Protein: NRDE family protein
Amino acid sequence: MCLILFAYKSHPAYKLIVAANRDEFYQRPTAPAGYWSDQPNILAGRDLEKHGTWLGVTTSGRFAALTNYRDPADKGGSQSRGELPRSYLEGDSNPQDFLEDASRKRSLYPGYNLLAGTKDEIFYYSNRGGGVYQVPPGIHGLSNHLLNTGWPKVERGKEGLKSIVEAGADEDQLVESLLALLQNAEPAPDEVLPKTGVSAEWERVLSPLFIKTEGYGTRSSAVLLMDDQKVRFHERIYEWDGKTRDQDFMFSHEGQRG
Structure:
């Protein structure tokens, strides 16, 4: 997952709104979002290579999302980062305790950012940043640096999310507007590109909200809406040949699925 935009306690109806893109090599085997057969309370996509996830929610309302921290010189540990959100979703520890425990194991993983929480509280931790941080209400953005780092794609995404939240659309319009925002493929001007250790050409390629190259790009977009009664999860999958397919899930906080 390379871009996570979220509005936390900033909408009159939804305590948490998440709009996220997962960028990955097209050849990496991936299962689309669904209820896991071995953990039916988890709704998430799944990396079939390491069996972790990048974003998911449980029928009890636990939420987790992960991005990599971009640093080509990173010599971090070899364990899969995707096991971190999976472990949070599988467990029952509170998010602050979970992330504090993750901080004590920071050297086991390459660089990452992790959000964990519920509609009522969200915490953030990066093993390339400071300590565990409780996220305040507001509009936030996370890419492949620290939370709310002012990369062009993060700033553009946050501005777009703010406008959508303030527009007062109904639920279906809200989902479609968020998906449209996530498909913005306009690259940033060269003069504002970040310098993360990759080539200038790759900084340019990676600068839009939506990425597409021959072998790597945005594989899926996810929209998550959480209010006091229900959770809605919508995923749009982008195939390498340009085709898309959508799937939509909804359940109450008591776990009734649809």
